Prior knowledge:
The protein is mostly helical.
Amino acid sequence: MRSSRVFSFSIKRILDILLSSFILIVVTIPMVIVIAMIKIDSPGSPFFCQTRIGLKGKPFQILKLRTMVANAAQIQMSLENSNEIEGGVLFKIKEDPRITRVGKLLRRYSIDEIPQLINVIKGEMSLVGPRPLTIRDLSKLPENQFLRHEVLPGITGFWQVSGRSETSSAYLGKCDRFYVNKWSLSLDLSILIRTIAVVIAGQGAY
């Protein structure tokens, strides 16, 4: 049983590399246009790097397109009391004043997540897995939810197709445990297919 699971994870890794490489090639020209829009809309780098916690609790630098003002991290400290996520593990505000005009569009359709395909190719993430948390989020995470660190974090996952930002911190933990305990290649495929529908509809994204 263990050897079968190891083999399945190997197939998952191969698919991650092939699909991520293909998508990056396809979106190269559109990304150039998006990067230009970010630069015109607000000052600062078009990219955003942040420390996230990955496999076995190892930190890595996640890469995203910048959707907020350049000093968003500093401003967040003054907005903690406005957090709308029940339980407080994640930090989300529907009308977050830090988000730029272009950023709202990028977030609605998860376009800002595309550079994470590079993290996938590097082996720091997978296309599907638990959401990689920030150090701030991890400090608020109950220890019984650390099971999430037994697999690679994902660009999308069971939580993302089950409500995303419109759910609670406890529900995030429930989704993580379900994914880790029930993982299979067919589950990953199901999540990827559901992700397409969620992204097109812009459900739970802000």
